[in-house]
Design goal:
Helix content is 44%, strand content 15%. The model has no long low-confidence stretch (mean pLDDT 94).
């Protein structure tokens, strides 16, 4: 018998029961990830080997089924881009910046994303029709160089992507959750990113490990972490209102982590679903970043606290010129200089000690935020991400 929403929410408030269920689900999730990781490593152990690294090998895979661009564009502004993504609270916000810097036509399905995600198959089919109509209408006016999707198999069907490819436009798809949402699950609607293999020219992922998975399946892949729109996420001249804040839904290990900090005397202002506080808009989110001495992040994936990945907050908070304290992740350390641009912890005790240290050092906090903002402007904008991809593909000279 399925547990209804109200009963499920009441059960979540029973801490020992919730933690027991979470641990069981985390164990299952981690087991699946390790099985995938070891299986793909056995099939492609040299994915990152020098001198070519994954980029050279992945480009060779791409060349085997995509003829390439015969006349590369000389300027970013000349690249004709079809960009599809949902603008919803908590999701990446690439469309505005891409539209400012490229010859870009955007399709924003944010207004229906939640309904599709909860299983509206009819609406999903309508979404495919709308995307293709928008593509063909703009493509007829001026041909696209590339179609870029920030979407999962839940929102975009393989047939939709294949049709765009048949029009002669390469398709790239960004997913940020392969570590726990790679395989299709019995959810009653299409899901999982593996079913899109064969319908996409390049799979974009924020996990280097998952780059190997796609390549082992014969598909080109490219490391493409989240970016920041610096005109949205930016420093604001606001007084500090919170010692520590956390934005995000209360699920997985998050509630227990916050409770542990509070038991150590750390005050944390939480915003998001199931915290008992109101929702905040994306613009309010930037205000909270700026009003907080320390912005807390949690890098766990799904139900697991041991399996981590790069999060949107890992780019948005430092990109806005503020201090992020989050779970250590080896790929995060490729993007930022730890302790100079972002702060990382290993557990609740470590986090509390760092919070107390930096709350008493406002000048150092300000210096970290400033350094992070400068690094973001140079390397971590959505334009920088896209430009790197386009040069790698040969679409941009």
């Amino acid at each position: 018998m399925a547990i209804t929403g109200p009963l499920r929410n009441r059960a979540k408030r029973i801490s020992w029961l919730y933690e027991a269920v979470r641990r069981r689900r985390a164990g299952s999730q981690e087991h699946e990830y390790i099985r995938l990781r070891e299986g793909y490593y056995a099939g492609m152990p040299d994915c990152f080997a020098e001198p070519d690294g994954y980029e050279g090998r992945s480009r060779s895979i791409l060349a085997s089924y995509w003829p390439g661009n015969t006349s590369p564009r000389s300027r970013v502004a000349d690249v004709r881009l079809f960009a599809v993504a949902p603008t919803v609270i908590g999701a990446p916000r690439p469309l505005s910046e891409l539209a400012r810097n490229f010859d870009c036509v955007t399709y924003d399905f944010g207004s229906i994303a939640r309904r599709v995600e909860t299983g509206d198959i009819v609406l999903r089919a309508h979404l495919q029709k709308e995307i293709l109509e928008a593509f063909y209408r703009a493509h007829a006016q001026k041909p696209f160089d590339i179609a870029w999707f920030s979407a999962t198999n839940i929102f975009v069907a393989p047939q939709t992507l294949q049709e765009i490819r048949r029009a002669g436009v390469p398709v790239v798809v960004l997913n940020l959750d392969e570590k726990h949402l790679y395989l299709e699950k019995p959810l009653g609607l299409p899901n999982g990113q593996k079913p899109l293999i064969g319908s996409v020219d390049v799979h974009l992922t924020n996990s280097l490990e998952c780059v190997r998975w796609y390549m082992a399946e014969g598909a080109a892949a490219y490391f493409f972490p989240q970016g920041v729109d610096p005109e949205w996420a930016k420093p604001l001249d606001l007084p500090k209102k919170y010692d520590v804040s956390f934005l995000g839904a209360a699920y997985g290990v998050r509630r227990r982590f916050i409770e542990s900090l509070q038991l150590q005397g750390i005050k944390v202002a939480c915003f998001g679903r199931n915290w008992g506080t109101r929702f905040v808009s994306d613009d309010e989110k930037i205000e909270i970043f700026n009003q907080s001495v320390i912005n807390l992040g949690m890098g766990g994936t799904g139900h697991s606290e041991r399996q981590t990945c790069i999060k949107g907050r890992d780019i948005e908070v430092p990109g806005s010129g503020n201090v992020l304290l989050t779970t250590f992740d080896c790929e995060l350390a490729r993007l930022w200089t730890i302790s100079r641009e972002v702060l990382c912890y290993f557990n609740e005790i470590d986090a509390a000690e760092q919070i107390r240290y930096y709350l008493s050092r406002p000048a150092e906090v300000a210096a970290i935020g400033h350094a992070a903002r400068q690094r973001a402007l140079q390397e971590h904008t959505w334009t920088e991400r896209m430009e790197g991809l386009l040069r790698w593909m040969g679409i941009l000279a």
